[in-house]
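=== How it folds ===
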Amino acid sequence: MKTATVKQLKDELKHHSTTTLVDLCLQLSKFKKENKELLS
């Protein structure tokens, strides 16, 4: 599995609404402790 670059992530996130981004962050926080640490 190839990891996306920061530029690719930024470009993709620009196309989403604020509520969608919040939902994505909440989904990430459910999986691993490391994800929660990165979001805080």
In short: The mean pLDDT is 83. Residues 18-29 form the longest helix (12 residues). Residues 6-39 form one domain. Residues 3 and 24 are 17 Å apart (CA to CA).
